[in-house]
Specification:
Length: 520
């Protein structure tokens, strides 16, 4: 009798969670991972820093770690390993140098402590007093799950110095966004370098940068002269300067360069040297010089999407100022590819579901009514994430796929019984009333048994189980919402369908004409 208001309420209920999602009140985190037990603290001083200064600071870092543990209640750390002269990331890539140091800290299992990793890192960072000459202190968690960072922005350009300045500026921008714990880039400073260029006299003699470089490499790195076999060993013979001269910077002043005509000239007459700080490694992507700026975030305060959206507002100006280009990499690329695949899979799945229902019900319109409950499942699932204070994840979407099949089963139970009542000769409204009354128990039992089986996992407090809770939330709350709404929405759709059912209208007109003929 009130099908219009009923369907209007259903439409509004679908719009509310969609609004919560689009406004950012329900965030999206691509792939949440269980809280790891291992933390890495990497320390980098400027090139040329004495090793003693680095070692002294590492002792202070150990003391600040101990003070942090005591301030947070104690008994939080299982082991702490200090490396001097080396930094090691969670991807296993190590760098060495007298200006580098690192610590690997293994905490007790998250199930046996109340202090979360982000809180521990913040407290530790607050107690660290950076000494003069330090370049970077970076404390991160061990990476788990799919490779890559949630926030990973790639900068590409032609000049290494400009690229590094752009990476530093981007790190400052990311660090100023709420919820960002730490930032890093893979374009780290290296040792001091000597850069040579030809003098006008060297150019007049016909020398080139390449020819001078080849002779310098032959002098200090050696040139392979012969390879011979000594029993089972293969021996390389290299011609190079004596070790004492190779290890002395003064030898550059005494080195002679050979010209094309066979003459020799002193190196200092044909080249000039300038010094600058180089990079430990220069990386390329798609044949272009590139660096990746990454950030670790606190999932309790923000999401990768929010951070990337905030950074995207500053990136055009930064790219213009430093003449670089930018792109989003890491898990954001995987997220786009995965969501595109899931969209295609959803379309294919709905088409196959519709085809099966058309075959079962021998009708083109009835499957649409059966499948109309799928958007209603989205209402309960999204509201469930909002009530539970959870972000949507890739597992939440998996839960929505499974939920679609469950709620369609409930709708089939109701529709099948309705059609049986119509075949018995009941009118539309009487058949709908009978179907809802008779099959309410079956629909409720199907939903309640599923929800009851998932409740223990839904309220599991173990940090290691938190990754599965979004999936359970989608199914449980989606079933709650559809179970309450299916008994109202499906009958409302059927009454509207009956008004436009030409077969039904023809049948009623035929019956009316037969009554008139019988009366005459």
């Amino acid at each position: 009798a009130n099908r219009g208001p009923t369907l209007a309420c259903a439409l509004v209920s679908v719009a509310i969670p969609v609004g919560l999602l689009s406004s950012g009140r329900i965030g999206f985190s691509f792939f949440p991972t269980p809280e790891p037990q291992v933390l890495y603290a990497n320390v980098s001083f400027v090139a040329g820093t004495p090793r003693a200064s680095m070692v002294s600071f590492m002792r202070e870092l150990e003391q600040s770690l101990s003070d942090t543990e005591q301030a947070l209640g104690g008994e939080l750390i299982l082991t702490a390993l200090t490396r001097e002269g080396e930094v090691l990331g969670d991807n296993g890539v190590a760098r060495q140098g007298d200006n580098l140091g690192s610590m690997m800290v293994e905490l007790v299992s998250p199930d046996h402590r109340d202090v979360r990793n982000k809180a521990f890192i913040r407290e530790w960072q607050r107690r660290i007093q950076p000494p003069p000459g330090i370049e970077r202190i970076n404390i991160t968690e061990q990476q788990s799950g799919p490779p890559g960072k949630d926030v990973d922005i790639r900068l590409t350009g032609s000049e290494p110095q400009q690229l590094k300045e752009a990476a530093d500026a981007l790190s400052v921008i990311l660090a100023g966004i709420e919820g960002v714990v730490s930032t890093d880039d893979d374009m780290t400073w290296g040792r001091e370098q000597l850069v040579y260029s030809l003098t006008p006299y060297g150019q007049a003699l016909g020398l080139s940068i390449e020819s001078v470089g080849n002779q310098l490499r032959a002098a200090y790195d050696g040139r392979l002269a012969q390879i011979y076999q000594d029993k089972r060993d293969e021996i390389e013979v290299r011609v190079q300067l004596p070790r004492a001269e190779r290890e002395s910077l003064a030898s550059l002043g005494n080195l002679n360069i050979r010209l094309d005509d066979g003459r020799f000239v002193p190196l200092r007459q044909v080249v000039t040297f300038t010094s600058n700080q180089g990079f430990s490694a220069l990386r390329h992507a798609d044949a272009q010089l590139a660096t990746d700026v990454t950030a670790d975030i606190d999932s309790g305060q923000t999401t990768a999407g929010v951070v990337l959206k905030a950074a995207a507002q500053e990136l055009p100006a930064l790219a213009s100022r430093y003449n670089v280009r930018y792109s989003f990499e890491g898990r954001s690329v995987d997220q786009q590819e995965t969501l595109a695949d899931m969209r295609d899979g959803l379309i294919i799945g709905l088409l196959l579901m519709y085809a099966v229902l058309v075959w079962v019900f021998s009708s083109w319109s009835t499957p649409l009514i059966v499948m109309s409950v799928i958007p209603l499942a989205l209402v309960g699932a999204l509201l469930g994430h909002w009530v539970m204070g959870l972000n949507l994840t890739i597992l939440s979407l998996f839960g929505l796929f499974g939920l679609s099949g469950i709620v369609v089963n409930n709708s089939i139970i109701l529709v099948s019984f309705y059609q049986e009542q119509r075949q018995r000769g009941l009118a539309v409204n009487d058949a709908l009333n009978e179907a809802v009354v008779q099959r309410l128990r079956a629909v409720m039992l199907t939903s309640l048994t599923t929800i009851g089986g998932l409740l223990p996992l839904l309220f599991e407090t173990s940090p290691q189980a938190q990754v599965l809770i979004p999936l359970v939330t989608s199914i449980s709350f989606g079933l709650i919402g559809t179970t309450l709404m299916i008994v109202f929405v499906v009958p409302a759709f059927y009454t509207i369908l009956d008004d436009f059912d030409l077969t039904s209208l023809a049948r009623e007109r035929k019956a009316h004409r037969e009554k008139l003929v019988a009366a005459e």
